[in-house]
From TrEMBL:
Protein name listed in UniProt: TonB-dependent receptor
Primary location recorded for the protein, binned into one broad class: membrane
Entry's localization field: Cell outer membrane
Origin superkingdom: Bacteria
Pfam family, one: TonB_dep_Rec_b-barrel
Family from the record: Belongs to the TonB-dependent receptor family.
Organism, scientific name: Sphingobium agri
Domain TonB-dependent receptor-like beta-barrel residues, every copy: 355-818
UniProt keyword annotations, A-Z: Cell outer membrane, Ion transport, Iron, Iron transport, Membrane, Receptor, Signal, TonB box, Transmembrane, Transmembrane beta strand, Transport
Ranges for domain TonB-dependent receptor plug: 58-170
Residues spanning the signal sequence: 1-26
Annotated Gene3D superfamilies: TonB-dependent receptor, beta-barrel domain
């Protein structure tokens, strides 16, 4: 089918799309009639969005938007931001990034621009906004969608209206506002893997001018991924240190069990006060707590057996060491270093030596080698026994004040403070050994203040938004990484802070009914600071020098300053610290404009063209495995996007068809590269991204609606910086001019038919819904590791809902991924560390939901 579509001209693609999508426009749960006098003739209901900071029909907004109402999210069993990935064209949203260990982390890409990391040093390329408040971290950005009124996915740079880091687009989550009458809506769901979820929102009027709402959510389910006992690993068969022998952020859930389970709850309250017709005040507070098992992790292959080659660094050195080989396998010193081990807390030599423990030629009598014996061949199981937890607490408050200075001028203030506390630990080696054990602790807080002046003039022909924005963030990310039974032990805190100020504005002028003009701009100034304390707690570099007989390092108790200098460690006061001492600082500034023109030949048709720029600041690489004299940094990235499109309603509002074509010059791309055992952020070079998307809703009669979308992207490097070139090999596609960008499939197609039938004369309704999403192959990592590629996939979800009269009760039975299509969503090629590993999408699951409304 895809080859057939690719061969069609654009007009034909639009015709196909007309029978397929549902973007911003088609996501109503029950399509309402377009006119009061034709309730049975079909029609498409309008959706009101705030993409331009004012309420307006999505069909009148000259931006490519996919918007989803609460009813549409409920019908399609969309419970998190990542689950929108299959419904919106040219986006890839994944729950989790490589070695993040948690599904609360969001990897968001829009039209080829995004971020596939959770580290504090890199900002998202797609901004996530909760009731207008920017969420600075990808940790916690995969929001559970409980009391959501609407989600808007805006594509392309959005800096003239939204805050930081919207170079690729923005995800705007709008939660429910309190009503002026009592109302409760809720649901309870059970399903696969002992799923239980309960959600509810109550509107509680307090006084004539004061109303409130309270929303809650609780969710528990078992993990679908099983940890199995390795055959022959009974007590006494082999020796291995417990996970607690090494420094970590925590030591929960070790041993045999499951991965992917969760226990979470959240609470949100809102107060809305309207003391007069001119003043509106909204206060919001929210708290969420999540306890998860680690993101399910499958060992795909190991790489320790290429003696003397690039693969033979850590796992190979360990295998050589336990066999008593000090030369010809790892070149000696790394293997010799196993005569000295430490746990990273009390001294250099506090773990037992393991060099030569298997020298009697019995590979299993003392220490198990690390190799493909631990590859289970099963997507949903491993032999891991190490760390297995993710804990997150997120909370914050916001106050929004709107003051109508006149009938045509409103001053708006949004003030917010938020905190995030996160701990995660995962066993990525898939074995009972401590070959790659990772844990992190992040603590973050942010404050933002935004002022907007929203006005209109000239008989509403001129509409404008002028604004000022201030953002302050601070926090830390502490890394604990154990490689190859302690050969290398990374342990250290990284402290970062940001101050950002911006002025922005956008004018929309319609001099005549036929023509509209948009002019906007944003000026940004940002200051960042970073101090790195990451250290090699095992002193591996010193041991290598000692093994080679370097004179200053003949003795390591204590480490002499001459030995420190010979080893290249930059800090005399901390000889194990990989970073130089002191605070690193950077300042960035940018001016990003936007120009657009619109054409309105009829009330139901708008064509538009726009040119805009987007921007994201740079920073520092915070993951090191070798000492460096300076903290390595990366520069800002920029995008310039041209877009043309149209939005239309045809056939007496029975067909809604929207189309956009775009091309983007993407410069200074910030990507995660694997350098040895260190996943580092650096600028890759430049790329050209071009494509189109078509979204359609077809509602010929009230009982039937067909929504669909088609998205196409061609995203390739046009220039690659010398340090970012990766040559193609038998294991990786490489990074070079003409290579593909990660997380960017060429094609995505969604088809969603919906049937609503009356049940007798009682007023009850039967609703049948299905979603089919085709996604073509894509890279999951920068280097294009073949084992990690996401194969082309066809995912089908379906459900049936019975709504009883008056909509007070509803019962839904459905399934997600009902044909059990499995593919990798994230992973890492930790070649130097000894393994390829990844996370597969969730298997087929069923659910049953009872909804109430009164």
């Amino acid at each position: 089918m895809i080859k057939m579509i690719a061969a069609l001209p654009v007009a034909s693609v639009l015709a196909v799309a007309a029978g397929t999508l549902a973007p911003a426009y088609a996501q109503e749960a029950a399509p309402a009639p377009a006119a009061q006098d034709a309730p049975q003739s079909g029609g498409i209901q309008d959706i009101v969005v705030t993409a331009q900071r004012r309420s307006e029909n999505v069909q009148k907004v000259p931006i490519a938007i996919s918007a989803f109402t609460n009813d549409a999210l409920q019908e399609r069993a969309v419970q998190s931001v990542a689950a929108l990935s299959g419904l919106a064209p040219n986006v890839t949203f994944d729950a989790g990034t490589p070695f993040s260990g948690s599904s609360s982390v969001l990897a968001a890409y829009v039209r080829g621009i995004g971020s596939n990391d959770f580290a504090f040093n890199i900002d998202p390329g797609v901004g996530v906004y909760l009731d207008g408040v920017y969420l600075a971290r990808s940790v916690g950005a995969n929001q559970e969608l409980g009391d959501v009124e609407r989600i808007e996915v805006l594509k392309g740079p959005q800096g003239t209206l939204f805050g930081r880091n919207t170079i690729g687009g923005a995800i705007s989550i709008v939660t429910h506002d309190p009503g002026d009458t009592f109302r409760f809506i809720g649901d309870a769901t059970v399903g696969s893997y002992k799923l239980f979820q309960a959600r509810g929102t109550a509107d509680i009027p307090i006084a004539d001018t004061l109303s409130s709402s309270v929303s809650f959510s609780v969710k528990t389910r078992d993990g679908y991924f099983k940890r199995r006992s390795f055959p022959g690993a009974q007590p006494g068969t082999y020796d291995v240190e417990p996970s607690t022998a090494y420094a970590g952020a925590g030591y929960e859930n070790t041993g045999i069990g499951r991965e992917g389970g969760e226990d979470a709850w959240s609470l949100r309250t809102k107060l809305r006060w309207e003391p007069s017709d001119a003043v509106r005040v909204t206060l919001t507070g929210d708290y969420s707590s999540s306890k998860q098992e680690q993101l399910p992790n499958t060992l795909l292959a190991t790489t320790p057996n290429v003696a003397g080659g690039a693969f033979d660094v850590f796992a190979g050195s360990y295998n050589c060491a336990i066999a008593g080989q000090s030369t010809g396998c790892g070149n000696g010193p790394p293997s010799f270093a196993y005569a000295y081990r430490r746990a990273g807390r009390t001294g250099l030599f506090d773990l037992p030596a393991i060099f030569g423990v298997n020298a009697d030629a019995n590979p299993d009598n003392n220490r198990l080698p690390y190799d493909n014996r631990f590859v289970t061949g099963d997507k949903d199981s491993s032999y891991a026994t190490g760390l297995n937890f993710a804990r997150m607490q997120s909370y914050g408050g916001a106050g929004t004040i709107e003051y109508d200075l006149s009938d045509s001028l409103t001053l708006k203030s949004i003030t917010s403070y938020r905190e995030l506390h996160w701990k995660v630990g995962m066993d990525n080696d898939g074995s009972p050994l401590n070959m790659l054990q990772i844990s992190f602790e992040m603590n973050q807080k942010q404050f933002s203040q935004e002022f907007q002046l929203l006005g209109k003039a000239l008989d509403d022909r001129l509409k404008y938004v002028l604004g000022a924005y201030y953002f302050k963030e601070s926090g830390n990310l502490h890394d604990y990484v154990t490689f190859a039974e302690g050969l290398l032990q990374v342990d250290g805190n990284n402290i970062l802070s940001t101050k950002n100020g911006a002025l922005f504005g956008q004018l929309d002028f319609k001099p005549i009914d036929l023509i509209g003009i948009t002019v906007g701009a944003r000026y940004t100034k940002e200051k960042k600071a970073f101090e790195g304390f990451q250290s090699d707690r095992n002193g591996l570099t010193y041991k290598i020098l000692n093994g080679f007989g370097v004179p200053p390092c003949a003795s390591l108790t204590p480490i002499s300053d001459d030995c420190r200098v010979a080893a290249g460690f930059p800090n005399a006061d901390a000889p194990l610290q990989l970073y130089p001492g002191g605070v690193n600082r950077k300042t960035f500034d940018n001016f990003s404009p936007k120009i657009g023109v619109q054409f309105y030949p009829t009330d139901d048709f708008m064509a538009y063209a726009s040119w805009s720029k987007g921007y994201k600041t740079g920073g520092w690489t915070t993951r090191l495995s070798n000492p460096l004299p300076d903290a390595p940094s990366f520069d800002e990235e920029k995008a310039t996007t041209w877009e043309i499109g149209f939005k239309s309603k045809l056939l007496n509002r029975r067909l809604q068809l929207n189309f956009a074509a775009f091309t983007t010059n993407y410069k200074g791309i910030q990507l995660n590269f694997q350098q040895g055992v260190s996943p580092t952020i650096q600028n890759a070079g430049d790329a050209r991204i071009k494509g189109f998307e078509a979204e359609a809703v077809f509602a010929p009669v009230r009982a039937f609606t067909l929504t669909s979308s088609v998205g196409y992207i061609d995203a390739k490097y046009t220039d690659v910086l010398p340090g970012a070139v990766v040559a193609p090999s038998v294991i990786q596609g490489g990074v070079f001019v003409g290579a593909e960008l990660p997380k960017t499939p060429h094609w995505k197609v969604n088809v969603s038919p919906r049937i609503e039938l009356d049940v007798g004369s009682s007023g009850a309704k039967l609703i049948m819904l299905a979603d089919w999403t085709y996604t073509s192959r894509m890279r999951n990592d920068t280097e294009g590791t073949f084992l990690l590629d996401r194969k082309a996939s066809n995912v089908v979800n379906a459900n049936v809902t019975l709504r009883l009269p008056d909509d007070r009760y509803s019962v839904t039975v459905g399934g997600t991924n009902i044909f059990d299509e499995r593919f990798l969503t994230t992973g890492q090629a930790q070649i130097a560390g000894g393994q390829f590993y990844g996370t597969y999408n969730r298997p087929a699951e069923w659910y049953a939901r009872l909804g109430v409304k009164f």
